[in-house]
Design goal:
By secondary structure, the protein is an all-alpha fold. Helices cover 79% and strands 0% of the residues.
Length: 182
């Protein structure tokens, strides 16, 4: 009996270490409030403790992200406030090897990509976040959003194509303006 309790404690500890940060990020994007996001994640892990045995069969990440997302949406609906937090500084590393010009160029590119991502549908933005911010597989994303793996792949491909196309158009326009000034 003691071994079982120890195994359960270790699995909860592992899950918290692995998923707490990405879940807080997800909840923060939905609620716009760090304290609310932390409460949502805490509630998610409490629910995990109650359902742990039923969901450990390879679907843990999808279950956690789904519960967290739904809980955050419930909190926002109840609180009637939604202020998405978008801080590009968290995406920009503190790399002292770069020149100021390189840093500004990278920040400008990140700002442009963020703007292009903001122009996607909510579902496309969510799939991109799950894939690139949280590192979920197509299956895990599909489970979280109730889509097939093929549909996730298709939607992700379409979203990335839109971003590439729009990015190329913006970069071309930017270069044209630079040449016109010369």
């Amino acid at each position: 009996m003691a071994d079982r309790a120890k195994d359960q404690t270790e699995s909860v500890t592992w899950a918290v270490k692995r998923y707490q940060g990405p879940l807080i990020t997800q909840a923060l994007r939905i609620t716009g409030d760090l304290e609310l996001a932390r409460e949502v994640v805490q509630d998610t892990f409490l629910r995990f403790c109650g359902h742990r045995q039923k969901i450990l069969n390879g679907r843990l990440s999808a279950w956690l992200f789904t519960v967290c997302r739904n809980r955050a949406l419930d909190v926002v609906a109840k609180e009637r406030r939604s202020q998405p937090v978008e801080d590009l500084n968290e995406w920009v590393s503190d790399d002292r090897q770069e020149s100021p010009r390189q840093i500004v160029s990278r920040r400008d590119s990140l700002a442009l990509v963020k703007t292009l991502i903001d122009g996607l549908t909510e579902r496309e933005r969510e799939i991109i976040r799950y894939k690139f911010e949280h590192g979920l597989s197509y299956r895990e994303i599909g489970d979280a959003l109730e889509l097939t793996e093929g549909n996730v792949g298709y939607l992700l491909h379409q979203a990335l194509q839109k971003i590439r196309k729009r990015y190329g158009a913006k970069e071309s326009a930017s270069r044209s303006k630079t040449y016109q000034k010369l």
